[in-house]
Specification:
By secondary structure, the protein is α+β, with helices and mostly antiparallel strands. Helices cover 33% and strands 26% of the residues. It folds into 4 domains: 93 residues, eRF1 domain 2 (Nucleotidyltransferase, domain 5, 2-Layer Sandwich), CATH 3.30.420; 93 residues, Ribosomal Protein S5, domain 2 (2-Layer Sandwich), CATH 3.30.230; 121 residues, no CATH class; 72 residues, 3-Layer(aba) Sandwich (Hypothetical Protein Ychn, Chain: A), CATH 3.40.1260. The strands form 5 sheets. Strands 16-17-18-19-21-20 form a 6-stranded mixed β-sheet, with helices on one face. Strands 3-2-1-14-15 form a 5-stranded mixed β-sheet, sandwiched between helices. Strands 4-5-6-8-7 form a 5-stranded mixed beta barrel. Helix 8 runs parallel beside helix 9.
Length: 496
């Protein structure tokens, strides 16, 4: 499948669009003032140990303390590896026996701060290169699971030999072969091994020299990560619309990713680069709830704090011979559309897909198989649990950064994220109750209601009798003032 990567660069923001056969599949953004932290390595200080949660909060110099769970401590990881072949592995040592408050600790960010949660950390450091991932505290030699099983053993043995051949006295650590390193030569792999070990030596030296909390190494910026992580065999072109950034990226690629440099092109067109495939229009659609399908059906996507739900509807699709086939074809198309929306919106955590109910078991299995097939294209780890007792498809998608909606939007100042507001009549009744409450506590000369025009209009028309009745009951005049700047639910009751 042909893939094109479009890069729109500006001093304040970098945007990367991954397009396959003319359709936008992924959008990545990095803002200069909001750059992500995943991959950054810090020397931090343990601020607090929580035995009840088996976790600790680590000060790494951010606004909020970062979170470290006992399972992400290097000693715990090593214990799991050591006991991996045992039927009854030894229990992991409690966190309070591994770290203490005030301790300096080298950690790496594995999840960006999301919402009110701080960054998540691991003390198992990993450094990604072009072909390999270096594990300086682990002796494990591994191979990407995306590489066919029959090739893994030979590649593992080859990598183990190269790691030993390129080791100096005192060198240690393990490596994982990345997917794009499957066909790499011994010379290329050796070059990556030497580069990664040199990088680790610099990080260790900085950790001894700098006080906590300090940044030891910042991960590559988005432009550089395009060459490292997004380019594959299917990538035809990488088009960038900035001559200055093109020169920098070309120099970086020539040194570390020479195979990708030939695909790099400077875009000189008069139209904005994202207009080539209507990228901005697709981004706008990805922020909406409704996603229309080509068949006439549609999806409704709702993102909440706990999970994301996707509801499939037939809409106006009546193209099949009978109702069962209509449902089946809509669900098949929806399976691909849902997988694409998860990538495009970068939705993570628990996802519930409510496909239209199918009577035939073979249809149910075919839709589930198509859904798994479409999700296999995702760079992010996904896991599908199948149909629940209620016929819902439950799945998870690893979450490492904010979703597209959280990155570009904020809760509505009027509804505060509820998506609904009280009717003008409901607000009128709230005001009447509030006036009665105030009248029992205070003795002003007059009550003045300041509210939105729609609320004042109802008081002057349909609710005028109730307002007059309340005024007589409390024996105080009630005046009204319309304020156009107020939202419908906002009001003030002024005591005069």
């Amino acid at each position: 499948m042909q893939q094109d990567i479009l890069i729109n660069w500006s001093p304040q923001e970098t945007r990367v669009a991954v397009v396959e056969t003319g359709a936008l599949q992924e959008i990545h953004m990095e803002r200069t003032l909001e750059r992500g932290l995943v991959g950054n390595i810090y020397i931090g200080k343990v601020a607090r140990v929580l035995p009840g949660m088996q976790s600790a909060f680590i000060d790494i110099g951010l606004e909020r303390a970062a979170f470290l769970h006992v399972a992400d401590l290097i000693s715990s990881v090593a214990a799991r590896h050591a006991d991996s072949d045992q039927a009854n592995p030894a229990p992991i040592l409690p966190i309070e026996k591994q770290v203490f408050e005030g301790q300096s600790l080298m950690v790496q960010v594995i999840k960006d701060p999301i919402g009110s949660k701080g960054a998540r950390l691991s003390s198992q450091i990993s450094i990604a290169g072009r072909l390999l991932v270096f594990l300086p505290q682990d002796q494990h030699i591994g191979v990407s699971q995306k590489i066919p099983l029959e090739q893994r053993e030979s590649l593992r043995a080859r990598l183990q030999k190269l790691a030993l051949d390129n080791a100096n006295q005192g060198d240690s650590g393990g490596f994982i072969l990345r997917t794009n390193g499957e066909d790499a030569s011994d010379a290329e792999l050796s070059e990556d091994i030497l580069y990664l070990r040199k990088m680790w030596a610099q990080i260790k030296a900085s950790s001894l020299r700098l006080p906590p909390p300090s940044l030891l190494r910042q991960d590559l910026n988005l432009l550089q990560r395009v060459l490292r992580d997004l380019v594959n065999e299917e990538t035809q072109t990488i088009r960038l619309d900035s001559s200055e950034q093109f020169a920098l990226l070309h120099a970086f690629g020539s040194e570390f990713m020479p195979a990708s440099v030939s695909k790099l092109q400077l875009y000189k067109g008069e139209r904005p680069i994202f207009d080539l495939f209507n990228i901005d229009e697709e981004i706008a659609k990805a922020l909406g709830r409704r996603v229309d399908l080509k068949s006439g059906g549609y999806l409704i996507v709702d993102q909440t704090e706990a999970l994301t739900t996707v509801d499939v509807n037939t809409g106006g699709y009546v193209g099949a011979r009978n109702f069962d086939d209509t449902i089946f074809k809509t669900n098949l198309e929806a399976a691909g559309a849902i997988a694409r929306q998860l990538r495009l919106r970068n939705l993570g955590g628990i996802v519930i897909a409510d496909f239209i109910d199918m009577v035939r078991e073979d249809h149910r299995e075919a839709v589930l198989e198509e859904f798994r097939k479409q999700l296999s294209k995702d760079r992010v780890k996904t896991q599908v649990s199948g149909y629940s007792a209620l016929g819902l498809v439950e799945m998870t998608r690893k979450r490492t950064r904010e979703s597209l909606a959280h990155m570009l939007c904020e809760p509505c100042a009027v509804c505060e994220g509820k998506g609904i507001v009280k009717t003008a009549r409901s607000v009128c009744y709230d005001i009447l109750r509030e006036i009665l409450r105030e009248a029992r506590q205070f003795n002003p000369r007059e009550f003045r209601v300041v509210a939105a025009p729609a609320v004042i209009d109802i008081f002057l028309d349909e609710e005028s009798q109730h307002l007059a009745g309340l005024s007589d009951f409390i024996a105080k005049p009630i005046s009204l003032r319309s304020e156009g700047a107020m939202a419908q639910e906002q009001y003030d009751i002024v005591l005069l």
